[in-house]
Amino acid sequence: MFKNLLEQIYKEVNTLNLEGQQASYIPELANVQPNKFALHITTIDKKHYGIGDVNEKFSLQSIAKVFAFTLAYQLKGSAIFQHVGVEPSGNPFNSLIQLEQEQGFPRNPLINAGALAICDVLISELNNPEDEILSFVRKIARNKTITYNPAVYQSEKKTGYRNRALIHLMKSFGRIQNETENVLDLYFKLCSIEMTASELSKTFLLYANSGIIPDSPEQILTESQTKRLNAIMQTCGFYDEAGEFTFRVGLPGKSGVGGGIAALHPGKYAIAVWSPLLNAKGNSVKGMKALELLTTKLGWSIF
Ligand code: GLN
Asked: How many helices (H) and strands (E) would you count in the chain?
């Protein structure tokens, strides 16, 4: 069923001539070929279907914020919500306006300010945050080869002016415990993690599987925590386009400016899509269309 459907969707999206722009504010991301396109689904009952460039690595960027939050939630439980809220921001992912108005308290963990606050917590909690985050992602991905991309990391470190502004603003409100450069460094590393669409859909299956790593007895988040994280992805995963994504697709998910989107249907499947051309809100144009077609043709969504 999924195989034919993905083939149909892949063809249909390619005929639409959708327009978008690659992220160029992180110069390294502008070097990726713009016509890359991949769809990969992994189901709870262990089936895999992919089409297009499914075995090519791409930069996860903000999708990796989900993994950092998962680890911090596992370590701190509900106390993590002293550091970030659970409200959609209705603003761009790197906006400063709301943060000033709300005394440096980030609306949610999936905007940049929130992910920076989570990186600050991880630095306080872990002995070697850089290695431990990577080991955690490798564990949930069930793949020891997942790693940071040094060129993307360096590229963002050189140009991350807005993230520097965000963290300094939060620090001025007394919200950041560690050195700002250390927090930024961890955040840029996190965003530089790369995976293929196939690896990403396999990793996201955790969130469709009540917080348990598939094929293992290991419960990463409780069922209730997983439900809550999925709710945060649903309401905040696409920044000021979260409403539009919910309206058109109807699944919890997370996008990144590398052009990836990961989404899931609890109890059924996880899907990763990748196409580097973004709309004005920083979300993959083809990715959103493909997911809209998927849930519409399947007649399944969580609503
Ligand atoms: N690393 C990017 C940034 O901080 C992540 C943004 C995104 O993927 N939306 O700007």
From this structure: 12, 8
Give the length of the chain: 303
User: Which residue segments constitute the domains of the chain, with CATH numbers given?
Assistant: 2-298 (3.40.710.10)
Question: Which residue puts its alpha carbon closest to atom 10 of ligand 1?
Answer: 94
What's phi and psi for 123, nearest 5 deg? -65, -40
C-alpha 219/C-alpha 16 separation (Å) is 42
In whole angstroms, what is the distance from residue 133 CA to residue 166 CA?
Answer: 22
Q: What pLDDT, on a 0 to 100 scale, did the predictor assign at position 226?
A: 98
Instruction: State the pLDDT confidence band at 300, using cuts at 50, 70 and 90.
Output: confident
Q: How far apart are CA 78 and CA 39, in angstroms?
A: 34
Q: For the segment 157-169, what is each residue's pLDDT rounded down to a tens digit?
A: 999 999 999 999 9
d(CA 114, CA 73): 13
- Is 187 catalytic? The answer is yes
Ligand 1 centre distance from Cα of residue 59 (Å): 10
Cβ contacts of 171 within 8 Å, gap of 6 or more: 104, 180
**191 CB near ligand 1 (under 6 Å):** yes
The string of pLDDT tens digits covering residues 216-257 is: 989 999 999 999 999 999 999 998 999 999 999 999 999 999
Query: Active-site residue 257, yes or no?
Result: yes
Please state the rounded mean pLDDT for residues 291-296.
96
Query: What is the position in ligand 1's atom list of the atom closest to the CA of 192?
Result: 1
